[in-house]
Task: structure prediction
Amino acid sequence: MTEKQFTITDEAGMHARPASALVGTVSKFKSDIQLEYKGKKVNLKSILGVMSLGISSGSVVTISADGEDEDEAMAKIEEAMKAEGISN
Amino acid sequence: MTAELYGIAASDGIAIAKTYRLESPSLEFDKKSIDDPALEIERFHTAIAVSSEELELIKDQAEMQIGPKEAAIFGAHLMVLSDPELIGPITEKIENDLVNAEFALHEVSDMFMNIFASMDNDYMKERAADIKDVRNRVLAHLLGVKFPNPGLISEKVILLADDLTPSDTVQFNPEFIQGFVTEIGGRTSHSAILARTLEIPAVVGVKKLMASLSDETMLIIDGIEGKIIADPTEEQIELYKKRKIDFEDRKTALAALKDAPSVSADGFKVELAANIGSPKDVKSALENGAEAIGLFRTEFLYMGRDSFPTEEQQFEMYSEVLKAMGDKPTVARTLDIGGDKELSYLDLPKELNPFLGLRAIRLCLEMPDLFRTQLRALLRSSVHGNLKIMFPMIATLDEFRQAKQLFLEEQEKLATENIPFNNNIEVGIMVEIPSTAVMADLFAKEVDFFSIGTNDLIQYTMAADRMNENVSHLYQPFNPAILRMVKMVIDAAHKEGKWAGMCGEMAGEELAVPILLGLGLDEFSMSASSILKTRSMISSLSKAEMEKHTDSILALATAEDVKNYVSQLVDK
Result:
């Protein structure tokens, strides 16, 4: 399993556009991918799950990937986070 | 019968047209027990598939109509339709509880809607409407009822709805949809945002709207005031037709001036600047076409806190403003406290006459450490933009010399410490005390520029406190005494090749602008919202023409005479 922390820098927090981009990115992978925020874990392939956390700007989230393509998935997640400008 | 209803003004503009009620079909259903969950799940998947196809179409249409950025929301809707945390629990519920798909869908989507609706962030609250929109589409397909299609509307109408969903709003053809009115929603709801994008008027949150108004009712929508008038009288229709034209003319004319230079009809260029109180005001200044910041009131950085801001904190705030302004000049006025502006952490003795007491530059020279910290922070920030500095409340040349001396000393210290700063910062003064206006010719040899602070200059010249109702009639911007003093200051500056600006409220006043243009004022600094109006006014005035009238104006006896004279000039 691989795990990484991200700080959400987008002023609006995790709003619909970056959340869709992130979910769209991970949906292609076979690994089980979870996002943890304030002790709550959600499936990162679920836009409702991600948005329901109400992640605000400045928050730290932990993303974990578990499965055959976990490393590749994590690399793409980092890319998407940067491309969307929600984390650096 | 004529009826007026009020709501939240969500998008500017005025429209007059017949109403079109947009109502959702009944999506009522009964909870049923089922025998064949596999069949029910298949029925559910079919409804999801059909809904996805529709949403793809709507998304394509939205991309063409309003652009990819606004259409992105339908990408998110499609994602909800394939969300494993939505689909999974629904199929599980059908399988385990042996209930119909409609019920399972309703239960699971309700759970998510409740989560969003209970968030304390307005943006997130509005997302509950997105889920409802997706849910209702699937539900309609499960029930075999048709969803309304506002895309079929082919005559000019104002839409009325309980709430407008995103999939409703993008199907609108703006050519036919003149505006919309909804019973629920706020300024950040989809309907409000899209109305602003499409530039059609909208009023939202109108209580009892759907119960009050029927189809094909003549309606006036006023998105500026947040008001609608049903069955208006002929007079009301005429009035609003005129307002609509005025609104559109104003919008077009002013928008065109945002990036235009500030030039008089005969080609004389002036600078139109904004007065700001904090870094967050810069955005609005630029959006309103400011060519500079003519007055950055730095004392606001010292207010609302319990100790002096550090050099670092000041440096950051000044840099933020300078970076945002880029090459455009920013005139920072050093600390102007005392008088009516008190600081909780600075214990100043009570004065009998605070406006004539220890304030502004007098206080700074009395407390040089405080002043030096600010000068240092300003100097350091100067590498980030086009900074100019001015001192407030200068009454004598000695005061200017002392302040300038402290400024030069801080420059030298920074140079020794190898800390970068701009070596050519212009240093000027506010002219707001009559003694300085009278001595402007001598000041002009030593300062780099003048900025006339009319609010104080008028009250000191007339010896009238404008907040005191008993004497406020003596607060006369158009008194020839004031105008003569303004002329002395401008002429003195020009004689030494310096520039003169004005940062009092007078600089944006309709009757003052023609006089000031004639007197040759170089820079007019005002509240951001007055800039475009002033630019438009200046473009219609001839400087040479106004100059010819200057002597006559200055020879008039009273403020009333001046106002009458200029009113007649402008009307011509």
Notes: The first strand of chain B starts at residue 3 and ends at 6.
